Amino acid sequence: MVSPAPRSRLVPAMEGVRWAFSCGTWLPSRAEWLLAVRSIQPEEKERIGQFVFARDAKAAMAGRLMIRKLVAEKLNIPWNNIRLQRTAKGKPVLAKDSLNPYPNFNFNVSHQGDYAVLAAEPELQVGIDVMKTSFPGRGSIPEFFHIMKRKFTNKEWETIRSFKDEWTQLDMFYRNWALKESFIKAIGVGLGFELQRLEFDISPLNLDIGQVYKETRLFLDGEEEKEWAFEESKIDEHHFVAVALRKPDGSRHQDVPSQDDSKPTQRQFTILTFNDLISSAVPMTPEDPSFWDCFCFTEEIPIRNDLHLTSSEGRVSSHISFLSVKRTPPSPASPLSSC
């Protein structure tokens, strides 16, 4: 196995990375879509080609391009030499034999609503989730809350319902959900984790767009988990992002605020354009016009309530709604050109 590269390589000192891409407003041209698909690994092209809805395909594509951009620019690994793999639970990771100068390098992606987001750290365990506040697809907000009653503790429901208007209650609901998702993604357990084991003491109750806050505290089975820090921010009026952080050895790290630290930090999300996504890209496969033809036949998924538990990286179906539906994977004899 290739050992990690020494720090003497021309690798700039890496700080935490926070990126976001508005896949909801991205209307890719033929040239953009075909360049994007040439810039990812063949197995990811096949995976993206299975999505029924264009919104899901765009979000997945943005996520892959952000990961490759991250590795190319922060680890100084040539784009066409980057090998991404998936864990048994589907989480994308850098191949173990990569020339990575940071043994604890960690990244995570999420997409929901109009954004795909990425968080990366050279030395910290990280999980990220983005949630868009939107009305439930069916029924009223109180009915929706009743269905989701067991997902939060009594104290969390008190916080959610402490607001007079239902929209603000829904806003706080999704903020709580993003926090729980970020923790679950950071530890990589996905389904099967009892959400009521987690309780978040949220502070402040109101977030300003563009600021980042670290005051919210986590309690697990009633005990405060002081080694965890949670960055909270709003990308815009309707999108909450939560980033969970911890040292790999489980010890407390410097980003955990003290009790008298009430000021927001300044680690804001950088909003990327498509040109930013492919600024370091190197096409790795021949152009496939049929992939554009297939994409043109997909429809944008109708706006609905997308609420799911994660499976490390991707979202999985729940009884409330779904984020994505896939076609039956094409057989080797039936490539994407048969779509």
TrEMBL record:
Task: Give the principal location in a single coarse category.
Answer: cytoplasm
Q: Does the keyword Cytoplasm apply?
A: yes
What domain of life does the UniProt record list for this protein's source? Eukaryota
Where, subcellularly, is it found? Cytoplasm, Cytosol
Q: Which cofactor does it need?
A: Mg(2+)
Residue ranges annotated as transmembrane are none
InterPro entries recorded: 4-PPantetheinyl_Trfase_dom, 4-PPantetheinyl_Trfase_dom_sf, AASDHPPT_N, P-Pant_transferase_sf
* SUPFAM superfamilies to which the protein is assigned, alphabetical: 4'-phosphopantetheinyl transferase
Q: A single Gene Ontology molecular function, please?
A: holo-[acyl-carrier-protein] synthase activity
- Report the record's Gene Ontology biological process terms: lysine biosynthetic process via aminoadipic acid
Q: What does this protein do?
A: Catalyzes the post-translational modification of target proteins by phosphopantetheine. Can transfer the 4'-phosphopantetheine moiety from coenzyme A, regardless of whether the CoA is presented in the free thiol form or as an acetyl thioester, to a serine residue of a broad range of acceptors including the acyl carrier domain of FASN.
In its UniProt entry, what is this protein called? Answer: L-aminoadipate-semialdehyde dehydrogenase-phosphopantetheinyl transferase
Q: To which species is this protein native? A: Mustela putorius furo (European domestic ferret)
Record lineage: Eukaryota, Metazoa, Chordata, Craniata, Vertebrata
Q: In the UniProt record, what gene is named as encoding this protein? A: AASDHPPT
